[in-house]
C-alpha cells in the first residue's frame, strides 16, 4: 500500500505552531507593557473641545435665537406671498436674532472644530515647528478677538448715551444689537486662550476628531463570504 504524503496545509499548520511556541515570554510582557503605556498616555491626555455647562447653555440660547429667526422668516414669507400681509417687525427681529446667534457661537464653533483649517504644509513640519505654528495661530486669533471686543465697546457706549433706537416702530435699542460684538470677541478670546494652553501642554488643538475607519459588520460579513454587497 503506497504511503500518503502530508499535504501543504499540514506543513503550514506545523510551521505556525512552531512559530507560536518560539514567542518568548519577555516579548509578550514587553508588548503588554507597551500597550498599557499607550492606553495610559491616551487616558491622561484631555480631549480638547469638551463643552461645559455654561457653553452648552450658550449654545442652547443661540440655537433658540436662530430657530426663532427662521420661524419668523417662514411666517413672513407665507403671509406676504399668500395672504398679501406683511409684518413691519419681522425683518428687524430676524436681523437682531441672527446677529446675536452668530456672535454667541463664535467661541463654541472653535471648540467644536468648525473653524476653517489649512493643514497641508503644517503636517509636513517637525513636531516642534508644528507646535510653534499652533501657538502662532492662537496668538493671532487672540489678537483679533481683542481688537473686535475693544473696538466695538465705544460704539456700544455711543449708542447707549445717545439713546438711539431702530428705525421701525419697534424702537429696539441699537446698543443692544452692537453689544453682541464685544460678547462674541470675549468668547473668541477665551477659545483661543484655551487652544494656546492645550497646544503648549499637549498637542494640536485644531485637530479634527478621529474618524472611525472600521468597516460595517454587514460589509465585513459580505466580504468574508465573498458575496456582493447589493
UniProtKB/TrEMBL annotation:
GO cellular component: plasma membrane
Lineage: superkingdom: Bacteria
InterPro entries: DctQ (IPR055348), TRAP_DctQ (IPR007387)
GO-annotated biological processes: C4-dicarboxylate transport
Keywords: Cell inner membrane, Cell membrane, Membrane, Transmembrane, Transmembrane helix, Transport
Pfam families cross-referenced by the UniProt entry: DctQ
A single MF term (Gene Ontology): transmembrane transporter activity
Transmembrane segments: 57-74, 94-111, 132-153, 173-200
Protein family according to the UniProt entry: Belongs to the TRAP transporter small permease family.
Function of the molecule: Part of the tripartite ATP-independent periplasmic (TRAP) transport system.
Known partners and oligomeric status: The complex comprises the extracytoplasmic solute receptor protein and the two transmembrane proteins.
The protein's name: TRAP transporter small permease protein
Native organism: Bordetella genomosp. 4
Amino acid at each position: 500500500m503506497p504511503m500518503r504524503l502530508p499535504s501543504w496545509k499540514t506543513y503550514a499548520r506545523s510551521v505556525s505552531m512552531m512559530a507560536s511556541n518560539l514567542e518568548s515570554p519577555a516579548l509578550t510582557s514587553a508588548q503588554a507593557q507597551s500597550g498599557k503605556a499607550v492606553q495610559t498616555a491616551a487616558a491622561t491626555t484631555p480631549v480638547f473641545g469638551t463643552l461645559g455647562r455654561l457653553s452648552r447653555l450658550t449654545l442652547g440660547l443661540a440655537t433658540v435665537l436662530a430657530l426663532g429667526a427662521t420661524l419668523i422668516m417662514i411666517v413672513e414669507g407665507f403671509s406676504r406671498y399668500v395672504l398679501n400681509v406683511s409684518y413691519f417687525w419681522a425683518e428687524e427681529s430676524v436681523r437682531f436674532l441672527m446677529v446675536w446667534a452668530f456672535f454667541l457661537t463664535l467661541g463654541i464653533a472653535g471648540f467644536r472644530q468648525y473653524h476653517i483649517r489649512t493643514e497641508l504644509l503644517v503636517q509636513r513640519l517637525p513636531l516642534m515647528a508644528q507646535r510653534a505654528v499652533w501657538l502662532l495661530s492662537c496668538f493671532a486669533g487672540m489678537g483679533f478677538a481683542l481688537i473686535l471686543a475693544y473696538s466695538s465697546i465705544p460704539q456700544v457706549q455711543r449708542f447707549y448715551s445717545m439713546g438711539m433706537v431702530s428705525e421701525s416702530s419697534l424702537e429696539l435699542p441699537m446698543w443692544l444689537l452692537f453689544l453682541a460684538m464685544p460678547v462674541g470677541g470675549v468668547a473668541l478670546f477665551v477659545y483661543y486662550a484655551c487652544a494656546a494652553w492645550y497646544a503648549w501642554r499637549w498637542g494640536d488643538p485644531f485637530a479634527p476628531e478621529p474618524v472611525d475607519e472600521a468597516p460595517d459588520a454587514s460589509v465585513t460579513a459580505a466580504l468574508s463570504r465573498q458575496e456582493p454587497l447589493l
